[in-house]
Amino acid sequence: MSLLGKRILLIVSGGIAAYKALELVRLLRKSGAGVTAVLTKAGEQFVTPLSLQALTEQKVYTDLFSLTDESEMGHIQLSRAADLVVVAPASADILAKMTHGMANDLATTLLLATDKPVLVAPAMNVRMWLHPATQANMATLTARGVSVIGPDEGVMACNEFGPGRLAEPPAILAAIEALLTTAKPLAGKHALVTSGPTHEPIDPVRYIANRSSGKQGHAIAGALAALGARVTLVSGPVSVPTPMGVTLVQIETAREMLDACTQALPADIAVFAAAVADWRTEEAGLKMKKAPGAPPPALVLTTNPDILATIAHGSPRPRLVVGFAAETHDVIAHAQGKRARKGCDWIVANDVGHGTGIMGGAENEVHLVTAAGVENWPRLAKDEVARRLAARIAEVFQ
Fold first, then answer.
1. pLDDT digits (tens, 9 = 90+) for 32-82
2. Which single residue of 54, 162, 294, 387 has CA 20 to 30 Å from 27?
3. Using an 8 Å Cβ cutoff, are 190 and 232 in contact?
4. Which tops the pLDDT comparison, 396 or 362?
5. For residue 34, what are the β-bridge partners?
6. What are 364-376's pLDDT values in tens digits?
């Protein structure tokens, strides 16, 4: 998606994640956007004005009281010359200042003076992110219309684990594209998307599951929302952040996922990207104990409901039903058979065999199987696969 001619005012605040702002600038410039950078004093501790200037090919602004900057472009004009203001990373400090309307440096003055949309990408220690003050600040900002991307969950620079990592630059780029895209070919359409694994309990502490991360399904939900669709995302347990503009329904089991999907109907589009467990067992009421010398307990498996086939053969049926086929061999043949057997319109097939790194990874290589034949897509980032699939879906409704 092109951002040709769009103007981004990028505010880089303090934090170790500030180095990722350089990659974000590169992606924005590659997409055709013009970028003007504002660097806070704290941000200068992690990246330099020279680095940002080299990548933006524009003057970098740092000082509210610079007579030269004010004579060339006053801060009020700077705040309103952009199509979008992006704060990445957005530290706990700058989010607090935004909430309370402070304007004691160039960045916060610009944010208070702008009349353009604002997108923030929070990044901070997990305890800072989860602190009630930060959560209250975020609630206030979102209520005012500030858009948010992330934060992601993972290992921090301080070696703590949890939510607080800056969203990856491609995800921030996708959020920017969604905010600035004027064409909304799926406006007025309702899309149902499933994502992630299901967890089928064995006893109160054990379950049957798979390696699905939810990255592809969540990316598809976000890409459809970016094209204007109203998206209901039914997801199993994942650590992937909910895409912007998407309604999340969290489930654990396949039966819960089917119920949630049924309740979400009617829908115009249904994309079943979740890796649903094929089988379940009756859950033991108490934790199963290992007895010395005794054989392991036998698990009696029962087939789970077929969510894709149920929706594809049911009523009301979405106009377009897209299934996924994760295979380890004979990928296209199995996908073609699945498409006919399940009654869906398209199958997105991929090879998740050992060594591909696709299930749980950042990239995917898919084959789009339709009534017209097979489209072989190259290996791409999952966000790009999602954008391509959403664009193909939009063609059906144009």
1. 999 999 999 999 999 999 999 999 999 999 887 765 655 555 667 787 888
2. 162
3. yes
4. 396
5. 7
6. 889 999 999 999 9
What is the identity of the amino acid at 41?
K
Do the domains 7-180 and 190-396 sit in the same CATH topology, yes or no?
A: yes
Structural element, H or E, at residue 133 = helix 132-143
**Amino acid identity of 386?**
A
**What is the amino acid identity at position 298?**
A
* Sheet with 269-272, side-by-side order of all strands: 246-250, 230-235, 190-195, 269-272, 320-327, 346-351, 366-370, 373-376
| Phi, then psi, of 290 in degrees rounded to 5 | -90, 120
Instruction: Give the span between the Cα atoms of 1 and 372, in whole angstroms.
Output: 25
Q: CA 245, 249, 252 angle in degrees (round to 5)?
A: 145
Q: Of 54, 158, 183, 187, which residue is the catalytic one?
A: 158
Instruction: Give the tens place of pLDDT for each residue, 315-341.
Output: 999 999 999 998 888 889 999 999 999
pTM of structure: 0.69
**Rounded distance, CA 84 to CA 147, Å?**
11
Quote the radius of gyration of the chain (alpha carbons, Å): 23
Q: What is the DSSP string of 81-124?
A: SSSEEEEEEE-HHHHHHHHTT--SSHHHHHHHH--S-EEEEE--
Residue extents of the structural domains in the chain: 7-180, 190-396
**Top CATH class, 190-396:** alpha beta
Q: Give tens-digit pLDDT for 242-282.
A: 887 899 999 999 999 999 999 999 999 999 999 999 999 98
158 among known catalytic residues: yes
Spatial contact of 148 and 119, defined as CB atoms under 8 Å apart: yes
Q: How far is CA 153 from the centre of its chain?
A: 12
Q: What is the pLDDT of residue 233?
A: 97
Scanning the structure block, which residue is given the tokens 């594809």? 312
Fold held by 7-180: Rossmann fold (3.40.50)
